[in-house]
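Replying to the earlier thread about multi-chain prediction with a worked example.

Input:
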Amino acid sequence: MLQEAGQPGVAFRADIPPEPTPAELDATMIAQALTNIMKNAGEAIESLREKGEPEGYRPEIRVTFSVEEGNAVILIADNGIGLPQDRSRLFEPYVTTRDHGTGLGLPIVKKIIEEHGGRLDLRDAEPFAEGAHCGALAEITLPVSLVQAPAQGGAEPARSDTTSATAATGE
Ligand SMILES: Nc1ncnc2c1ncn2[C@@H]1O[C@H](COP(=O)(O)OP(=O)(O)O)[C@@H](O)[C@H]1O
Ligand SMILES: [Mg+2]
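Result:
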């Protein structure tokens, strides 16, 4: 993964289905949004290291992708320093807790996602190890126009057969 090059010593775990998901989106913009989120995850890990990482700390970013009810759901979790106490304004421009932060990453990400009809949420991640602290979890939900997949199992075709049989009877 391209991002791995920029994050030395950080383990990546990606759970992404092999088949592509057809979706109408601006790939450049979405890539920029994802890069910003990954960057924040990397910086959160960096912040924890600077503060003094816990013993046995294994920095890690976990990415999962799934499609649920016509939405692509992308989860990006890290075990970095964790979200600040006050999260209410993190999506606003110029709100940053980092020394050299701009506070412009999340507003841009949010704008891009919302322009695609999606939404962005930020919350605590589940601890990656027992008793470990919580990092952050970014959840991106994007509507995707799924091409009709072939029906699986017996139930679906049976129902459509019934429909056409009914139609035939009506003639
Ligand atoms: N993965 C994360 N872990 C912890 N805090 C985060 C994370 N992502 C964003 N934040 C918080 O949100 C703030 C705003 O993020 P952002 O808009 O990208 O600006 P910047 O990265 O320049 O600070 C950060 O300063 C930080 O407090
Ligand atoms: Mg940022």
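The longest strand covers residues 60-68.

Feel free to reuse this layout for your own posts.
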